[in-house]
Amino acid sequence: MQQLIFFDMSGNEAYESNYGQFYYDNSKQMIRIDILDGKTNLGGSPSTYSVSFWQDYANQIEYILDRTSNVCTSIPLTTHIGSGQLPSDAIYGASLLLGSQPVYEYFYKEHYEGMTYQFEVGLMSGTCLPYNVEIFNTTSNGNPHKLVATEAFWNAVPSVPPFVLDIPSECTSSSVQLLHAFDLDKRIFSIHESLRFHAVPS
To answer: Is 145 strand, coil or helix?
Structure first.
């Protein structure tokens, strides 16, 4: 997975850029994201980071492991995991070729915490596995306005390796601190919120 996130806070533009691995298991109600190499200028000075997220929807808890400090925190989950399917009101837009692989582009809107976003999702022919996701904020009349996040998925496979969704010992010890989302470091909070979009579509 490759991801770019754009921010416009009080006129101060910032970005997040990262790549890593994304795992999704609907039967276990689990998502894991490993960000291996992240870069950002959020807050002013450029910095790098490496972080992993385990989103356990069956138990409504999320674990966030900072790979640099090896410190794990947990926060309550307030959303549900998506079905893995496009919503019924998704509109087919166009197809494109990735080499010889057709990718079919669909558009739909999602409402999240009082905001409306337009999604563009590209699904690969034959497997229906995702290739690209673009997220735009919208104007007051619902038209797409600014790109807020873009993602690309490479080397997708239709299975999850054994044990990859197991919660690590750093996150199951009694020293793990339970936080609310707004208590997270700004950098981690921004990544966390963008990744939560994966769980919103039903």
So the answer is: strand
Q: What is the pTM of this model?
A: 0.76
Residues 135, 178, 56: CA angle, nearest 5 degrees:
50
Cβ burial of 3 (10 Å; 0-12, 13-18, 19+) is buried
- The tokens of 44 are what? 């002013």
| pLDDT above 90 as % of the chain | 26
Question: How does pLDDT run across 43-97, given as a tens digit for each residue?
Answer: 677 878 888 999 999 999 999 998 888 888 888 888 888 777 888 999 999 999 9
SS3 28: coil
**Strands annotated E in the chain:** 2-9, 12-25, 30-40, 47-56, 61-66, 71-76, 91-98, 101-112, 115-124, 130-138, 144-152, 177-178
